[in-house]
Write a structure and sequence with these properties.
The chain has 128 residues and is of the alpha+beta class. It is 53% helix and 17% strand. A hairpin with a 2-residue loop joins strand 1 and strand 2.
């Protein structure tokens, strides 16, 4: 039987494979075993008071009325997603969403009114 020598190259290869395996385990753990943002969001809002919910509803109604006054928007519905840091995202459903200029105007108006980044404003056309 031949005795194989444990060389520096073999040691390096073993350490490299071990590190890669450890990195893979960490990545899988991070992806599959951390709570999703949706569950964190719903858990964070579980204790929301009725007054805060009512205030958010008023904000949505006010913004929907504001958007409906804009040229080409038509009737609008608004949903605002908030967390403890403020507004996270906004969804708007309106008649004029298919028009690119109207869509851009809505995005700018919502961004300015709520102080949210334009990339967090989603606009969808109403179904007929």
């Amino acid at each position: 039987m031949k005795k194989t020598k444990f060389t520096k190259e073999k040691l390096r290869d073993v350490l490299l494979v071990s590190c890669l395996a450890l990195l893979l385990v960490f990545a899988v753990w991070k992806i599959f075993y951390t709570p999703s943002s949706a569950s964190r969001f719903s858990a964070g809002n579980a204790g929301t008071s009725a007054a805060a919910t009512e205030a958010a509803s008023e904000k949505e109604k006010s913004l929907a009325a504001f958007l409906s006054e804009m040229d080409g928007v038509g009737t609008a519905e608004v949903r605002i997603c908030e967390d403890e840091n403020g507004v996270m995202s906004v969804a708007v459903v309106c008649d004029g969403a298919k028009n690119i200029l109207v869509n851009s105007n809505i995005r700018e108006a919502v961004s300015a009114a709520l102080g949210v980044d334009e990339k967090n404003v989603k606009i969808y056309p109403k179904s007929r």
